[in-house]
């Protein structure tokens, strides 16, 4: 098995940055139920604050019961995983999220207040995506996702 090169690590970091930007933009968007579900496959697993969901349909179910959100990513890190080329990626993200808007949440609710979150993703290369050129970021889907409020 070959070691990861600096180029592999640089491409993985770019892929993680690209993914993070797209994912949270979709999550906070008006069409988020379908947009976020597209990041997952039927075999993907999600644990949202201790509540397990399965696949893109489980993600849709979760999103339908959730008020609008606004995420602010404070940091993310990416670790390429040996075995595939391009490698799978373990991406960890931390930041704050606000649930609800003035019109959707009662005024005495704890929502509308930013909450600190930590989220970990296992991204796997998408074999169904068009092949990438050398130096281009690979296409990934979410194989596993674990999100937890930490504050």
Automatic annotation (TrEMBL):
All residue ranges annotated as the NTF2 domain in the record: 15-149
Superkingdom as given in the UniProt entry: Eukaryota
Protein name, UniProt field: NTF2-like protein
One Pfam assignment: NTF2
Highest classification ranks of the organism: Eukaryota, Fungi, Dikarya, Basidiomycota, Agaricomycotina
Record GO biological process: nucleocytoplasmic transport
Organism whose genome encodes this protein: Cristinia sonorae
Gene3D superfamilies per record: 3.10.450.50
